[in-house]
Write a structure and sequence with these properties.
mainly alpha; Na+/H+ antiporter like fold; 18 helices
């Protein structure tokens, strides 16, 4: 199947499934598309049992492999999605929760990697299918970053205190860049590299990636904001915003710093500029409208692709115990990795417990985790790692995603006002 045909098929499915959900179901759109893609994937597998001559799973796997989803996500869609999400974030609200965001996006990612890696290693050993602990830490790094896209969509439907909402949003925007660094370090270690940990190597990598990305994003965002002040042409302004995203992301890659953090920072700067112009009677609603549409479109394609990627898993390599245990382990790792950084910032234990519970339950995994998983090299353990990764992604998006409003209402009723 040609790439253009594949894109046409995805857009048709996004429109058809979106229409069905809008008219008769009413779920959050990303979740409905993921479920729809999963149902179609299972249908393809079921048809193959009765009509193996059609070769539908092989055709689907070949198409997905040709699509090279890991690079499509990390080198393309992620930049646009992060920029679109950051445009709507108020920088002043982020500043009020800056230390919580910094702790969650750095220490939290590292702790989640280590805790989940250790627990899932024990589960693989108990299942009689041992996976080396270094590869389990790689899996922990795959699942450590929360998904900014899924979280951003859910928070629109949930009334939360501003500080808590800022912490959830800010962490999900910035931990992708940190997640890339931790994942690459863990993967290199599993493949036999030495000298990656110790003597401040991890801290130095995080500083160079994080600070470098933020400085680059500030520079490109500021230059774009200056240019916007001198332009009064809607189409040109949209072209400039598109150029800002791609140039910032590729420049970050060229200079060896974090593309996701650079794009998020540039988006925050432009978002502030748009709000400043609006307060001066020079609205730029067309920019936010355009990026909202881009967000919806890419979001739809992303969650469809995640649903179809289940077809790449080899059923005969799946072990049930690690998969079932991974749901609990993901929640445990998330809870501890959130509680430890926040313990140094919250004066009241009751408020901290509420926010830890909310941050734990909104810790959805999504496209970034799938992209990391697809980057795993061929090894005797790849299928087991992929199966656990997809199980956690599907569980967090569907189960946690659908129940976030209910959990939020329960916590806000019992927590401090």
């Amino acid at each position: 199947m040609l790439p253009f045909d594949f894109a046409a098929l995805l857009l048709f499915l996004a429109a058809a499934l979106g229409l069905v959900n809008h008219r008769w179901i009413g779920m959050p759109q990303p979740i409905s598309l993921l479920i729809g893609a999963l149902v179609l994937s299972l249908g393809i597998a079921a048809v193959d049992q009765f009509l193996p001559g059609l070769g539908l799973p092989e055709l689907a796997r070949g198409t997905l492999k040709a699509a090279d989803l890991s690079h499509v996500l990390l080198d393309g869609m992620l930049a646009f999605l992060l920029f679109a999400a950051s445009l709507e974030v108020d920088l002043e609200e982020l500043r009020t929760s800056k230390w919580a965001i910094l702790g969650l996006a750095t220490v939290g990612v590292i702790l989640s990697t280590l805790i989940f890696g250790l627990l899932i290693w024990l589960a693989f050993v108990a299942a009689g299918a041992p996976v080396p602990i270094l590869w389990c830490f790689v899996l922990g790094a795959v699942l450590a970053p929360t998904d900014a896209v899924a979280v951003h969509g859910l928070l629109r439907r949930v009334p939360l205190p501003p500080a808590l909402k800022a912490a959830i949003t800010g962490e999900s925007l910035f931990n992708d860049g940190v997640g890339v660094v931790i994942f690459l370090i863990a993967l290199a270690g599993a493949q036999g590299a030495r000298g990656l940990v110790g003597h401040g190597a991890v801290a130095a990598a995080l500083v160079s990636q994080g600070v470098g990305g933020a400085l680059l994003g500030l520079a490109t965002g500021y230059l774009a904001a200056l240019a916007l002040r001198r332009v009064d042409n809607h189409n040109l302004e949209l072209i400039m915003s598109l150029a800002l995203v791609l140039v910032t992301f590729r420049l970050a890659d060229a200079v060896g710093t974090s593309g996701p953090i650079a794009v998020v920072t540039a988006g925050l700067v432009i978002g502030q500029e748009i709000r400043r112009m609006a307060s001066n009677a020079a609205p730029r609603d067309h920019i936010t409208t355009f990026w909202s549409m881009m967000d919806e479109l890419l979001n739809a394609l992303l969650f469809l692709l995640i649903g179809f990627e289940i077809l790449v898993i080899e059923p005969d390599r799946i072990h049930l115990l690690p998969i079932l245990a991974s749901f609990l382990f993901a929640l445990c790792a998330r809870s501890v990795s959130v509680a430890i950084p926040l313990a140094f910032l919250y004066p009241r234990m009751q408020e901290m417990r509420r926010d830890v519970a909310m941050l734990t339950w909104t810790g959805l995994r999504g496209g970034v985790s799938v992209a990391f998983a697809l980057m795993l090299p061929e090894s005797p353990y790849r299928s087991e790692l992929l199966a656990v990764c997809y199980a956690v992604v599907v569980f967090t998006v569907i189960v946690q995603g659908l129940t976030v409003p209910m959990v939020a209402r329960a916590l806000l009723r019992t927590g401090p006002r």
